[in-house]
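Note to self: user wants both folds in one dump. Writing first protein now.
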Amino acid sequence: MKKIIYRLFCLFLLLFFFTIPVNAQSVSQEELYRQQYENSGAADLPDELPPETREWMDSLGISSPDWQSIINLTPEKIFEQIGATARQQSNAPMRALLSVLAVILLCALMNGMKLSFGDRPLSGVIGMIGTLCICTVVIQPIVSCIQNVAFVIKGAAGFLLASIPILTGIMIAGGQPISAGSYNLLMLGAGNVISVIASAFLVPLLNIFLAFSVVSAVSPAMNLGGLCDLFSKTVKWILTFCMTIFSGLLTMQTVVSSAADGAGAKTIRFMVSAFVPVVGGALGDAIGSVQSCVKLLKSGVGAFGLLATGAIFLPAAIECLIWLLTLTACAAAGDIFELKEITTLLRSSMKVIQILLSIIICCLVILMISTVMMLAMGGSVT
């Protein structure tokens, strides 16, 4: 008797919870998707982007996470916007390139005059003066680049923390509560860690590293090159280790939670079809219809998150790449004229830019992998 009462109670619960999906069959798929889109809060997601990123997305024709606007995106629009961003970010490096080349040519001319007059002690003075002149040209823009990267990373972390509740709610509505829980915990941790790194460690440590590099180049008696190399290698190893641990943990939890959610969803649909009389099959079809719309919504929001993440990091990454090419060309010019002090300063500045680029790529890959894994959770609707 107790078993019969328990089964009847379960049936009443199922009928209560799935009354809305049955009514959903009377509306079109488009209306159902629109209701879920408005109720999820996905329409407010673009407001959480930094203003520059929002303008970048608007120029691509993507102003909302709606899949219909995302599906119209073409590679031509992306490459056109990347080219415009590269032209905008190349202004300061090009000015620095011309100034540094002018200083290098002037130092080379002075060295040539010195050799003609046989005045060898002037070589060190000329190299130091040239190095100090290049410091005034290169160091301030690199410091600004460091601050800009920190601002970009904090903006990306803010967007991630704002999008986690929306994505988690969509996953729960799509029948993935276990996956939503694991995704929520991991991404909250990642977002907070990235924000703390950007605000508390990135700017001061890289500024100190840059200062050591300048001192090592200006004053050869204080050989800090080994310390700078150790710092650069340590940061890269730490970034690689963190990426490996995070990716492995996210993959492991995705596999386990997806399997658990899939088994739970199939069990619910089987119970509805088997134990609910007359309308059991209709209820099962309605559940599948609702889940299809939810997964379409999740795909649109996830694709918007991928594009927004790329748009957040792309200007900073392009700026670092242009600075890296500029400093490499200047260092090559310094090698041609055998200006050791200037070349040491330029190569030390290159290491700072390389660390910045590594941090950008690390944060970008972590956010991209997490979004892709979120999209892969749940698989296809069955």
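First done. Writing the second protein, which came from a different request thread.
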Amino acid sequence: MTIATAESRELRPIYLLFEQLGCRGLDYDSTPPIKLIRSIREHLEEGGVLFLLGDFFRPSFPTATFFGRPTHSPNGAVVLALEKRVPIVPFYGYREKGFKHRLVFHPPLFLYKEVRPDQRRKATDKLNGVLEEMICQVPGQWFYWFNLDERWDKTEICSI
């Protein structure tokens, strides 16, 4: 199952491609939150896998740290990991040449073994640290950087 902002012009083509491949999807912006949560829980209880973008940004997301700076990060994966004891398998992809791509999977993270359920910020920061490491492996291929000017306070960007 893919959870995405399907109306985003940047993500819409990817969302439609997953849909064409038979991957059920939910639009983060148009699906009512209760339906979204129920669908995710049912999917996981059936042994399903979710694909969530960890670098997505919205000003309304909870505060976290990303590349050493305060920002707002999604914490849906953290909530599922801590409350439902769901393992997280970090991975990233990059283009090697032409139409040849490689996916790199990391060992599963069992955050519920390391972090208490009331420590969502700590768990989100831990996931952001893993994301930072993956981005640094192939920084030129991190395509989801279209909102850099919104992610950090302007004074923070100037001090980089």
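Dump finished. Worth passing along: Strands lie at 2-4, 25-27, 63-66, 69-72, 91-97, 100-105.
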